[in-house]
């Protein structure tokens, strides 16, 4: 098959995976948030509220598609997709099983780190094209935040690439050893926190859920366009969790095949659930605190991790 | 100068001053130790408004109510913002609802009612077709 | 294509270079859960240069309305002033009426008033702390605080049938006696409150992110607090040791043993924490009040059908959850008040916002607003 066709097929599969992840993720978030807040989450739609997200999606699809009169219409309408597609494309370079990466290229780790960064442009332009003060402020903050947190994330994954001797995620997974876990523990922490910041979640969701002001960069989006932003967010969580479980924990902790898959999924689900947990526990960080946290704390930690790995490397 | 205070120890000490003496009396009270301005309000007494200021002192454990009469046709009085900044919003409220102007207030504009509102509702003669009066026999 | 950002102001900055100021309108309807208040913010980048607080969106003319109602009919109006704390709003008005008309209040009624006022104080502080937490993004804390508040509101529903606007404290006493078992429910509730408050303190005020958001934000010095007329936890957070229940005691408070909670730094963190610890003190007062409460009537028996106080005027203030809530009442001998003015603590505290927000970022503005704990029913009347 031609690479273009293959890319299209896997891209579509990734989009469907994200849709499924969003469906389950929203339900999980509402249930977990409810339980943290001493209440039940959704209960009525379906058993234990499982069909709630489906009901909400149907509602969103049926909503009127509002474009603000003064917005830059073409850009405004295109931006949800510019945010969604790069994140979906990050899903195709994750090693789901031993030796199987849907889109196997030699620099897949770099692809994973770099391509979702394109969604920053989408967020910035979404805020800008809304011609709305809050949205502009939210978009600029989001862009600054995501760019800042790219660096620690990249550095922490770079430590793994050094250990695995390759930029290919499949190779890193194959080379993974159990003693990498304590060695890259700091790196994993940096990666985890940076991923939470990258998807604008948890304590770092100032641009998005500016509950102090309004909803930030997607304030003017309604209906299915807003739903695409939400799907992009859950896609980001999914991608970050899957990648973290695959890379930092060897995608199954090196266990034989049937168990590896189960452990891999369990680890990814645990990471995603912990991201939800963190969001509902902590307050939000202020933008300047957020930036100083990225630059003054996380980046040095990631650099330390790199140094440690570099020192250990000759003995491998 | 100032009329002598009725009694600084009495529970309801009332100091009555004339309109021109308001600022001076306020400064004197502040100098005596009344550091806290609790309330500024007005009462419409027909021919005049009576401005009511209430100040208290922690150290002296006392409170004084200062009253000043302001004629209805020329409802102006000096602001006590310089003495107690707490008068800022309180005087704006009196201006908004009674129409008494405070000279020397940094930013005298309506606080509750919209900018273009005509009239001062808390005056007794304020008449608005939307107002509902309850009958007296209740 | 014409671009219409709210407004574009070119102003001169301190060193003479022209700077474009951004005007952002926060409110009047915003998810900050404080009600309808509008702040027109002038921003230089992300820093607030000027914050103009615009109130009046909930102005209903309660003072004017009370001139047209009998003294008893005004009591439900006072409910709607500080709707988060109707009990003490009722009480402050009733004290003024009782003083004017010289009505003796039975002792059991005074104790019941103290109990419900302190319970209301806890409920109101939970609203204040919860809203402040929700402003910083810790929505879970808001729900926890409201869990506590819900139990208090249920107790009030048992007592007087209403959840928010109680109309319970009336001139001459209270409207209903406590039903059987109510004081036991209150005691068992109080035994749990300290634990729940400690949990909120640990989870929210102990959180590093919340500290970073609230410490050093909106610092109010003690002199400014007094000069600007701030009272209540807003002033006590700055170190002003002034609590009417202790320093100008009224009702049966002289018989109660409790401490005044005073903060050090006067920032948003201290104000919020002040509110939280005041709830502990309130539980102490409630348990003492329940222990000391005598039996007897709950309403003065010499009240005429239509209250007609002699001509005169009075000013009386109590310590509400927001500060000194006073009522200035002028009577002309008729069954209707000649003039009723409410000295609203939230109104006086809110006047500080334009001063406290300058120099902080836009996110801090919301934190400062939350720490002043305004309730717009009281601010706007």
What would a concise description of this structure say?
The complex is a heterotrimer of chains A (316), B (138) and C (381). With 138 residues, chain B is an alpha/beta fold.
Helix content of chain C: 40-55%
Which sheet architecture does the biggest sheet of chain C show?
4 strands, antiparallel
Number of domains of chain C: 2
Q: Could you give me the name of the CATH homologous superfamily of chain B?
A: NADH:ubiquinone oxidoreductase Nqo5 subunit
CATH architecture of chain B: 2-Layer Sandwich
Q: Topology as H/E string of chain B?
A: EHEEEEHE
Number of helices of chain B: 2
- Output mean pLDDT of chain B: 83
Oligomer: heterotrimer
Uncertain residue ranges of chain B: 1-10
Largest pleated sheet of chain B? 4 strands, mixed
- The radius of gyration over CA of chain C amounts to 22 Å
**In CATH terms, what is the fold-level topology of the largest domain in chain C?**
Cytochrome-c3 Hydrogenase, chain B
The value of Rg of chain B in angstroms is 16 Å
What would you note in describing this structure?
- The complex is a heterotrimer of chains A (316), B (138) and C (381).
- With 316 residues, chain A is an all-alpha fold.
- Chain A is built from 13 helices and no strands.
- Chain A has one domain.
- Chain A has helices at 3-36, 52-62, 73-90, 108-114, 118-129, 133-164, 169-175, 180-183, 185-198, 223-247, 250-253, 257-281, 287-312.
- Chain B has helices at residues 22-32, 87-98; strands spanning 13-17, 36-44, 48-57, 62-71, 76-78, 101-103.
- The model of chain B is unreliable at 1-10 (pLDDT under 50).
- Helix content of chain C is 46%, strand content 14%.
- Chains A and C meet through helix 6 and helix 13 of A and strand 2, helix 4, helix 5, helix 7 and helix 14 of C.
